[in-house]
Design a protein that fits this description.
The structure holds 2 protein chains of 2 kinds. By secondary structure, chain A is mostly beta strands. In chain A, the strands form 2 sheets. A 7-stranded antiparallel sheet of chain A has the order 1-2-10-9-5-4-3, with no helix packed on it. In chain A, strands 6-7-8 form a 3-stranded antiparallel sheet, with no helix packed on it. By secondary structure, chain B is α/β, with parallel strands linked by helices. Classes of the chains: A mainly beta, B alpha/beta. Chains A and B meet through β2, β3, β4 and β6 of A and α19 and β41 of B.
Chain lengths: 110, 814
């Protein structure tokens, strides 16, 4: 089901992901989390908190950030950077929409 | 001399002529055609005529002599039939023809008649002119019953007037609160109460369906819910419509009203329109102030002036004896708006100012309206009020002089001035608590006097009293905000959720002015809990605002796997259950199995995708979720009690199971762990639990507020009861009190420390009604809460939580 169009891979449609929620895509050993914000913006991060590898996809999503479920680090969905006093960064990927279809370019880490 | 013709003789043209004659009494020769057979009277004063406080003669503004003295030709009871704009003439139905240089339309408005079945029966009236009032007075001579449709300004005045004439009056209002266009709901409520006190029945949300007649006369009215109200007259006071038929017929531009530009001219350069028949910048007016402003503009422009009318902000005053009500401007709430509220429940005063950018944009005054015109003046002049903000609500009298000490106003209040309307606490009581009991902060005032402990709107005044009474010793406690999204603390938010009836997270964030667009991971789970707890049947649980454990009903572990703990009621299990667990462990290759401190079995290291299958297998063996992840009821630990133990005094196991089966599924501010021990040897360690029961020969000792985590604390004794049924009632009531008052993540011992052990004991042990009410609310909430989340998910709920969105082919990984 994963149509490959150049570097862009279709992974699902917008409505597969709940608002203020996330879904994962498996890429071999790696997991990428796709987040949908309250205002329907989409972001992709490696599903690994820079702190202790917590699954960010399981966190609470708010105002362009996700709070890690393990120790409450707050990670920017846009950049993957830890917010506030914490330091660290997780890989962020570029997404684009083709109609309702979500496409990811996993070759390009932001 | 130029000729001026006016169609209509209401208050607006009356005022226009006064101004015109003041400026130049020789400019025009004036002719008036009036469909009403009378001279000009003050329509605003119809209500006092109806109530018998005034007569028609009292309210005449311009009598026959006035018209004569000013050389005005007044045709009474004469309607205009047609207008010839080309020839500039008007012709009446009776054939009188008059030519004009300038024509003024002042045809006013017609009352709106709801086309209900029966609207044409004898006894269906409107409330518009003296004819209506005379009919009403006539009918009311024999007493009888009246129904007024419409709880707006006119309807209420009509109702009060009919009541004063001795009729039995019912007001039907379609909206939930009276005068909703002029008043906020709080003032609407006070007004409703005041009307009920006058002996007038007020029914809101009342939708009339049919007027029933007998022999062509009104006999009753039927509502859509089947209620039937007997009555001899029905007064429709549901609004007015600009009277524009004649203007339309003359070919003038009309919409809802006759369209005019800022100079009050219609699309014909020789024709003005004035008053209630006018639509200006999309607005039609039914109040007198705008009409007067228009009148003044036309008077000037008739004399070649260049005055413009720019629309009006209106103020409303209800003219019912004994009820003081004033409203002006715009008082809807909004993000960029602030409000100042003063309530005094004893004397029935309610004042609310709505501010935007330090300017008053709306005012509602109830009970004490003498400052209404002053506020209205500030509103119209857009005066910056930041300098007097602290004392603004107290009115003009407090503003004099140069020193604007906000304390002065509070200090000046008499001892019997009520500060907290919710709990009826006056200034004296608060001051004596402060000086007598050494109370020194807001929380203590709340616990000693209850002032500001309900809706909290008077917190500011209480704090000022603290400051006034304690002077420099007062050190305002800083409220710990819930999180960075708000300045409000948990207590404020919980109070406001109830006070403002906030039932969704977006509504709450809007009303309480959240600083972020969708909250954060600290506030959202708290808000979700508060709403679940406070509106169990109305609020839709927001799973995206729950922590992952509560969202997927398992406990996340450090490696992203989950652990699963099924319920074992009271810690009892069986070979069948154990076998099922063993099978699940083997089938899903679960790496670790452990006994928990709460007498259950924990399976650790389960992959998220496997969770629904694990639950399906556990469910087949009869297991439900142990909610080991929940801020909710966890375990009820028990000992074997009289079943086996030689020291046991009661059936502790049975009681524990009963409690667990009654309370499972309930959400609480933080986790809630119970235990029941069968004797004071206390093998189930009930004396360090959130709630613990110690069985004794004579009954049951109920303990609570223990801790054995980061803090270690023995329980407090709530009290002793004799039967298991009492244990259930008291424990459940205690849990509900904690549910309603606890801050999110605040364990029961911290809540108890904040509220006071004695207060909790008093409410649960001594106040039977309170206890039962808590119990009933818990039971109500449980009806909706006791759904096993595992079986729901086995059946497919939240499928998206457990499956990856996509698995990429390996070649795509590059």
């Amino acid at each position: 089901m994963n149509a490959q169009t150049g570097n862009w891979i279709a992974v699902g449609s917008l409505n597969d992901i709940p608002r203020r929620g996330a879904r994962c895509i498996k890429n071999g050993e790696m997991t990428i989390a796709i987040f949908r914000t309250a205002d329907d913006r989409l972001f992709a991060l490696e599903d690994k908190c820079p702190h202790k590898n917590g699954p960010l996809s399981q966190g609470i999503i708010h105002d362009g950030c996700v709070t890690c479920p393990l120790h409450n680090w707050v990670i920017s969905l846009e950049t993957g950077k830890a917010q506030g006093a914490d330091e660290g960064k997780t890989n962020a990927y570029t997404l684009k929409m083709d109609g309702d279809t979500i496409l990811i370019d996993i070759g390009a880490v932001k | 001399m130029k000729k001026l013709v006016i169609i209509g003789n209401g208050m607006a043209p009356g005022r226009m002529l006064e101004e015109l004659f003041d400026k130049d009494s020789q400019a025009y020769q004036v002719t008036i055609f009036n469909a009403e057979p009378r001279v000009n009277y003050n329509r605003l004063m119809l209500s006092p005529v109806l109530s018998g406080e005034k007569t028609y003669e009292d309210i005449i503004t311009h009598d026959d002599d006035w018209y004569e003295n000013h050389g005005v030709t007044l045709y009474k009871g004469v309607r205009i039939r047609e207008i010839d704009k080309e020839a500039k003439t008007v012709t009446s139905e009776t054939g009188i023809k008059a030519s004009y240089d300038k024509l003024v339309f002042a045809t006013g408005s017609n009352p709106f008649i709801i086309p209900l079945p029966g609207h044409d029966l004898d006894g269906v009236l409107t409330y518009r002119d003296l004819d209506d009032v005379e009919r009403m007075i006539e009918t009311s001579k024999d007493g009888g019953k009246a129904v007024v449709i419409g709880g707006g300004l006119l309807g209420l005045e009509a109702a009060a007037g009919l009541k004063a004439q001795g009729m039995d009056v019912t007001v039907l209002h379609l909206m939930p609160s009276l005068m909703e266009r002029q008043l906020d709901s709080a003032a609407g409520y006070l007004l409703e109460k005041a009307f009920e006190d006058l002996g007038i029945t007020v029914m809101t949300k009342a939708n009339s369906q049919e007027i029933i007649g007998k022999n062509g006369k009104v006999s009753a009215i039927m509502l859509d819910d089947g209620t039937k109200i007997d009555c001899e007259i029905v007064v429709m006071a549901v609004g007015i419509r600009p009277s524009i038929e004649l203007a339309k017929q003359a070919g003038l531009d009309t919409n809802r009203g006759i369209l005019v530009s800022d100079d009050m001219l219609t699309d014909d350069n020789h024709i003005y329109a004035l008053g209630e028949c006018v639509e200006h910048r999309g607005q039609c007016y039914g109040l007198v102030a705008p009409l007067y402003e228009m009148a003044s503009v036309i008077a000037e422009n008739l004399l070649e002036g260049t005055a413009t009318y720019e629309g009006s902000v209106t103020a409303t005053k209800l003219k019912v004896t004994g009820i003081d009500l004033y409203s002006a401007g715009d008082f809807a709430e909004g993000e960029d708006r602030e409000e100042i509220v003063l309530r005094d429940a004893t004397s029935g005063v309610y004042k609310r100012l709505v501010l935007k950018d330090n300017r008053i944009i709306g005012a509602v005054l109830y009970g004490e309206t003498s400052d209404g015109p002053w506020f209205f003046d500030l509103l119209k002049k857009k005066t910056d009020i930041s300098g007097m903000r602290e004392t603004l609500i107290f009115g003009q009298a407090y503003q004099g002089g140069t020193s604007l000490d906000p304390m002065a106003a509070v200090a000046a209040l008499p001892d019997d001035a009520e500060i907290c309307g919710c709990n009826g606490i006056c200034k004296g009581a608060i001051v004596s608590a402060i000086s007598g009991k050494g109370v020194s902060n807001l929380d203590d005032v709340r616990s000693h006097t209850k002032a500001s402990a309900s809706c909290g709107t008077c917190s500011g005044l209480v704090e000022q009293l603290l400051a006034v009474t304690l002077g420099e010793r007062y050190n305002p406690a800083v409220v710990q905000p819930m999180c960075g999204c708000t300045d409000l603390g948990h207590g404020d938010v919980r109070r406001l959720i109830k006070a403002k009836q906030l039932k969704t997270i977006p509504a709450l964030m809007q009303e309480l002015e959240w600083k972020t667009s969708c909250g954060c991971a600290k506030c959202r789970p708290a808000l979700n809990y508060y709403l679940v707890c406070d509106w169990p049947d109305e609020y839709a649980d927001d799973y995206q605002s729950r922590f992952i454990n509560e969202r997927v009903h398992a406990n996340i572990q450090k490696d992203g796997t989950y652990s699963v703990v099924p319920r074992m009621w009271g810690g009892m299990t069986s070979s069948k259950e154990l076998r099922a667990i063993a099978d699940v462990v083997d089938k899903y290759d679960i790496p670790a199995v452990k006994c928990t401190g709460g007498q259950r079995i924990d399976m650790l290291g389960i992959k998220k995708e496997d969770l629904p299958d694990v639950w399906a297998d556990l469910g087949k063996a009869g297991f439900v979720s142990g909610q080991a992840y929940a801020k909710g009821l966890r375990t009820v630990k028990t000992c074997v009690g009289t079943d086996w133990c030689r020291f046991g005094t009661q059936d502790s196991t049975g009681l524990g199971i009963k409690l667990e089966k009654f309370m499972w599924g309930s959400w609480t501010p933080a986790k809630l762990k119970l235990a029941v021990s069968g004797c004071p040897r206390n093998c189930s360690e009930a004396t360090c639990k959130d709630i613990g029961i110690i069985c004794v020969d004579s009954g049951f000792e109920i303990h609570f507020a223990g801790a054995a985590g980061m803090d270690i604390k023995g329980t407090e004794i709530l009290g002793q009861v004799e039967t298991q049924e009492e244990v259930m009632e008291y424990v459940v009531a205690l849990a509900q009190m904690y549910r309603e008052q606890g801050f999110y993540l605040e364990r029961i011992y911290k809540w108890a420390r904040r509220i006071g052990i004695d207060e909790i004991r008093r409410q649960i042990m001594e106040e039977t009604d309170k206890r039962r009410a808590y119990f009933d609310r818990f039971v109500f909430s449980q009806q909706l809460a006791q759904v096993d989340p595992w079986s729901e998910r086995v059946s497919g709920k939240d499928k998206h939580e457990f499956n990856p969105l996509a698995t990429l082919p390996l070649e795509a990984a590059q």
